[in-house]
Amino acid sequence: MTPAHEIRTALPDDVAAIRSILASHGNDGPVVTVDIVGPYVAHLVEHHRAMLSVVGDEVVGFGAVVDAGVSVHLADLFVRPDLLGRGIGRPLLAALFADASRRSTFASDDPRALPLYVRAGMAPLWASLYLEGVGTLLPTPPRTIDVDRADPSRLARLELAWTGVNRSADHEFWGSQGEAESAVVAVGGEPAAIIHARTRQAARVRVVDRLLVRPGVDPVAPTLAALRMAARGGSVQCAVQGPSPVLRVLLDLGFLVYDRDQYMATDAGLVDPARLIPNPGML
Length: 283
Description:
Layout (H helix, E strand, L loop, with lengths): L5 E4 L5 H10 L12 H11 L1 E7 L2 E10 L4 E8 L9 H9 L5 E5 L5 H7 L3 E12 L10 E5 L2 H12 L4 H9 L4 E7 L2 E10 L6 E8 L6 H12 L3 E7 L3 H9 L2 E10 L10 E2 L6
Parallel strand pairs: 4-5, 10-11
Antiparallel strand pairs: 1-2, 2-3, 3-4, 5-12, 6-11, 6-12, 7-8, 8-9, 9-10, 10-13
Helix pairs in contact: 1-2, 5-6
């Protein structure tokens, strides 16, 4: 029997309850290095659309979508584990997407997720593979490639020029994350890629939050240079899309796949998988 519940907009005071639901699914935990999940949830609540399913005063479900410009992207959809299969997730998903025609998400291996997203109009398109490797496995960039730290606002301006999408608030967020570094990769003196990287919450491992290559540029060399910078000589993790030519190169260099999701969308042309290494929650 479905419990009587209402759906409402999440507020800043709800962050603790949201984190409790995320933790019950293994998506939050002890802060070993810096807090990553708290600022992420707060950013979704403040700048995007975050909603809750509530029974009485108790939060039993959480979902959020990000306006990624190219699509409305499902960032999170979680129901309290003891209430799974009770009809809470589907109406929450419908409220989040509302009338958005362009939709996307990264579906986990949970067998309940993919059918739900197919019914929401999205098709499974390719695997998104989570890779990890030591930065020293990556080649030293040639002299024609420079990687220079830059203010997040510059990265936002470059993305706007390359794609027509203004994600200034998200770039400011990525650049403010724990131990974050933002950089521009130049090839022959011209900007060719942008990258934000940070540290994981539970381990001193570097993570790519966003890596975007300029249209018309071969993505392999600038991507490798950006990843080498991001690693800081240690390990780096990144979500490489299945069709990307970078995938085979990284595997040949010794990077390993440690997890995978399924990229789903209403249109295969919303993103170029060869040029984007995303934060899966924010596309």
